[in-house]
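Section 5: illustrative case.
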């Protein structure tokens, strides 16, 4: 009897995953409801993403949170880690200093403008291409969303490194859902996988998570991102299992490379090894293909929205099609148009061709 679940809202990618019929049927029922909501959005009853946004992105399909409006609380690649698998590129500002990296009033004003339209969302998520807990106003902004827009759940994606700080824990507790990362327990493995700020240690990260679990009554999911040869060894997975038993999160999720990472040498863990580790850890989920829901963007905003998404994470034409609620051909057309004006680059991966946004070359052709 397998004791893990598969998150795969759209399809079961392979029979290797052995998804039971019950799961498939439950999924079909849920999907029907989501499709109905998406149709309503397309009919204009609910608003999707429109206009230029500085701190918000999406809504994007999140593998963990369904349809999620992302909120960037730090400039891109301001982070306490420089993970070898990071999908957002190399960390350019490696720091553990909490600061007002983005002005809280501006973030709140942008959130209000967007959420006042009552868009169809599952979560407002503090995430982005950096570590959101570095923003010292995280708690204040989360409280604002909960009080001014009580219909939405607040989620926080964190790399866990600052949870050893009581004030950071207090602010993180404002989220309904906290998705925290724990990739390593051994210090050498931690340095190899996460390339942390010199003041950080794996031991402090585990202690921070233990303290947070003691204080936080909400939903705590812990994600372990597996990198072959680094943290998928029997010794490290045993240490991870022990730490996870002590932390007692609501859920444990295993992940591995799905998009191009920072280091080209990093590859995904094989499905066989992923399943072995899932069995070893017990009761964990394996993150499947992005849970997706169609939100049709206004035509005039689609190009900018595609770029906005691709600035944060590489996506295939299929991914883009699902987010925009358009055909893959239409999505490919938009990507081709962006490619012609040098706004995106491509990388071939096992899952297909991924597109990533690039800053325009000031000497190159001007985007239209
Ligand atoms: S994966 Fe997350 S924690 Fe790691 S470097 Fe990228 S943004 Fe930072």
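Designed sequence:
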């Amino acid at each position: 009897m397998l004791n893990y679940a598969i998150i795969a809202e759209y399809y079961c990618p392979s029979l290797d995953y052995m998804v039971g019929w019950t799961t498939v049927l439950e999924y079909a029922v849920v999907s029907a409801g989501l499709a109905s909501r998406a149709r309503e959005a397309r009919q204009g009853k609910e608003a999707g993403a429109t206009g230029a946004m500085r701190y918000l992105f999406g809504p994007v399909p999140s593998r963990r949170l369904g349809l999620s409006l992302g909120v960037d609380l730090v400039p891109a690649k301001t982070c306490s880690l420089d993970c070898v698998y990071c999908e957002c590129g190399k960390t350019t500002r490696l720091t553990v200093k909490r600061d007002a990296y983005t002005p809280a009033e501006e973030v709140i004003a942008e959130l209000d403008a967007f959420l006042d339209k009552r868009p169809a969302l599952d979560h407002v998520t503090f995430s982005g291409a950096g570590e959101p807990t570095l923003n010292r106003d995280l708690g204040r902004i989360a409280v604002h969303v909960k009080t001014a827009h009580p219909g939405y759940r607040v989620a926080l994606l964190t790399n866990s490194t600052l949870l050893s700080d009581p004030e950071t824990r207090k602010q993180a507790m404002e989220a309904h859902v906290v998705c925290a990362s724990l990739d390593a327990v051994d210090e050498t493995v931690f340095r190899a996988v996460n390339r942390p700020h010199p003041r950080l240690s794996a031991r402090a990260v585990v202690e921070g998570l233990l303290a947070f679990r003691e204080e936080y009554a909400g939903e705590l999911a812990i994600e372990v991102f597996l990198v072959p040869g680094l943290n998928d060894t029997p010794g490290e997975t045993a240490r991870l299992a022990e730490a996870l038993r002590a932390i007692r999160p609501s859920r444990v999720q295993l992940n591995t490379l799905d998009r191009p990472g920072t280091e080209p040498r990093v590859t995904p863990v094989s499905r066989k090894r992923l399943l072995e580790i899932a069995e070893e850890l017990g009761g964990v989920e394996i993150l499947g293909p992005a849970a997706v829901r169609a939100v049709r963007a206004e035509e005039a905003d689609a190009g900018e929205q595609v770029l906005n998404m691709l600035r944060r994470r590489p996506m295939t034409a299929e991914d883009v099609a699902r987010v925009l609620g358009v055909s893959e051909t239409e999505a490919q057309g938009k990507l081709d148009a962006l490619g012609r004006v040098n706004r995106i680059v491509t990388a071939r991966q096992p899952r297909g061709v991924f597109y990533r946004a690039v800053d325009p070359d000031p000497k190159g052709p001007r985007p239209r």
